[in-house]
């Protein structure tokens, strides 16, 4: 073997070559100090990687983790609702529950918008969350019972309402602040779009669904905070 | 000090909602998860990623049956979280930090004596794909066919990325 078999040396030290090729490389190494040194070096790298030691995080991460742990759901994962057709039960998948929790926030955002638009008056039935696992029918309550995609449609609607409100009061916003808000919203929109694209490839990925929900929530938060700041400063 | 029996007991308690049991699991395994996070994504993001991993473990702990060691199971969950997060971040950036240009311009740590070898600093300079494969194979001990499945690449690609990573590590670690 005249050419240096450098590309095969990792497989050589991992003992993953067929016998004839291994024999050829062994023969080469016996007469090539350059390749023999590479083999020794690669073995040293592998040895160092295998001996790496773990150390705990510099700060205790537990308090932050504990705050994020969702309470355990007790009993069957069923949501009871009351409707004009009488009590019925709907069951939700985890992504749907994530989406449903988002819907509550969205509907709250919508309620804020309605209240602002109507000068604080109430219109229509109130909208509240039904605790998962609740066995008590709730009277006089409407519940978003659509599928996850339906919830995302509602999200779009709520966002549109908030954006319209922001536009209506934009004259009261400092131009620099408005540009900063727009920049943040553009970044969030890009993240939402890219996460949606990732979900097209893997619609049931819990992480991506959660990421999408939290990113959407971030947009709602930005919009709500922006409108709140303007309204409290005028 | 964790034991397989203690971990399994705590995992079952955690599944029932016992956060103290889950904290014991965190105390017992946070160092290895954080170490994996540091090596996969770097020190800067390791804390946030470790938090994400344990939140994910809390959500998934009902699927732990005790067939493998809890440490093995949690590392697999951690890797999935890390890969998903990196994929999203990569899409956010609109590019993949794994091209030849980056290899050529990757910062090279000064060569020091063997006693001061800093494996993690050297790892941080590797291109993303090569680093993933190196960490999974040489640090975590996964086989090429397992890595290929996790990263959705071929076994041949896994082998070539590993060799690429080792050669780059050699440049930095071995005088």
Short description:
In chain A, 60% of the residues lie in helices and 3% in strands. Chain A has 234 residues and is mainly α.
Q: How would you describe what is shown here?
A:
The complex is a heterodimer of chains A (234) and B (175). Chain A is mostly helical. Chain A has eight helices and two strands. A two-stranded antiparallel ribbon of chain A has the order 1-2. The longest helix of chain A has 28 residues, at 206-233. Chain A is elongated, with a radius of gyration of 29 Å. In chain A, 24% of the residues are buried. Chain B has 175 residues and is mainly alpha-helical. Chain B has nine helices and no strands. Chain B has helices spanning 4-15, 19-41, 43-60, 70-93, 100-105, 119-124, 128-139, 144-151, 155-173. The longest helix of chain B has 24 residues, at 70-93. Chain B is elongated. Residues 96-117 of chain B have low confidence and may be disordered. Chains A and B meet through helix 1, helix 3, helix 4, helix 7 and helix 8 of A and helix 2, helix 3, helix 4, helix 7 and helix 9 of B.
Topology:
The complex is a heterodimer of chains A (234) and B (175).
Chain A: H1 9-13, H2 19-29, H3 33-50, H4 62-68, E1 78-81, E2 88-91, H5 94-117, H6 148-168, H7 175-201, H8 206-233
Antiparallel strand pairs in A: 1-2
Helix pairs in contact in A: 5-6, 5-8, 6-8, 7-8
Chain B: H1 4-15, H2 19-41, H3 43-60, H4 70-93, H5 100-105, H6 119-124, H7 128-139, H8 144-151, H9 155-173
Structural class of chain A: mainly alpha
- Give the distance, in angstroms, between the N- and C-terminal Cα atoms of chain B: 37 Å
State the helix count of chain B. 9
Kindly report how far apart the N and C termini of chain A lie.
83 Å
* SS strand fraction of chain B: under 5%
Q: What does the overall shape of chain B look like?
A: elongated
Low-confidence stretches of chain A are 75-98, 107-147
What is the average per-residue confidence, as pLDDT of chain A, rounded to a whole number?
Answer: 69
What spatial order of strands do you see in the largest sheet of chain A? Answer: 1-2
Question: Describe the biggest sheet of chain B?
Answer: none
The number of distinct helices of chain A, counting runs of at least 4 residues, comes to 8
Q: What portion of residues of chain B is helical?
A: over 70%
Structural class of chain B: mainly alpha
**Would you count the extended β strands of chain A for me?**
2
């Amino acid at each position: 073997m005249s050419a240096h078999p450098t590309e095969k040396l990792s497989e050589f030290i991992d003992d993953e070559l067929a016998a004839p090729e291994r024999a050829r490389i062994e023969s080469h190494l016996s007469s090539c100090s350059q390749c023999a040194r590479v083999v020794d070096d690669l073995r040293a790298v592998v040895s160092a990687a295998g001996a790496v030691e773990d150390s705990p995080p510099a700060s205790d991460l537990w308090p932050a983790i504990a705050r994020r742990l969702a309470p355990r759901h007790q009993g069957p994962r069923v949501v009871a609702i009351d409707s004009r057709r009488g009590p019925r039960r709907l069951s939700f998948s985890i992504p749907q529950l994530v989406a449903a929790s988002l819907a509550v926030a969205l509907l709250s955002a919508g309620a804020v918008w309605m209240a602002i638009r109507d000068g604080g008056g109430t219109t229509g039935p109130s909208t509240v969350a039904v605790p998962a696992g609740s066995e008590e029918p709730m009277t006089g309550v409407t519940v978003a019972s659509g599928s996850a995609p339906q919830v995302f449609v509602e999200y779009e609607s709520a966002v549109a309402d908030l954006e319209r409100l922001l536009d209506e009061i934009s004259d009261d916003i400092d131009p620099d602040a408005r540009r900063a808000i727009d920049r943040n919203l553009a970044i969030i929109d890009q993240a939402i779009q890219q996460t949606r694209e990732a979900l097209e490839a893997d619609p049931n990925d819990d992480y991506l669904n959660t990421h999408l929900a939290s990113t959407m929530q971030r947009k709602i938060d930005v919009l709500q905070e922006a409108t709140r700041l303007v309204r409290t400063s005028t | 000090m964790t034991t397989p029996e203690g971990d399994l007991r705590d995992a079952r308690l955690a599944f029932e909602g016992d956060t103290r049991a889950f904290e014991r699991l965190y105390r017992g395994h946070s160092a290895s998860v954080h170490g994996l996070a540091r090596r996969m994504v770097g020190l800067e993001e390791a804390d946030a990623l470790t938090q994400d991993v344990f939140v994910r473990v809390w959500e998934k702990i009902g699927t732990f049956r005790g067939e493998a060691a809890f440490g093995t199971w949690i590392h697999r969950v951690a890797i999935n979280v890390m890969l998903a997060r990196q994929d999203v971040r990569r899409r956010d950036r609109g590019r993949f930090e794994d091209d030849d240009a980056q290899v050529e311009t990757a910062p090279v740590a000064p060569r020091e004596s063997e006693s001061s070898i800093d494996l993690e600093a050297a790892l941080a300079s590797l291109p993303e794909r090569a680093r993933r494969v190196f960490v999974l194979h040489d640090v975590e001990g996964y086989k090429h066919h397992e890595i290929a499945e996790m990263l959705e690449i071929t076994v041949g690609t896994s082998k070539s990325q590993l060799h690429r990573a080792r050669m780059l590590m050699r440049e930095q670690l071995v005088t």
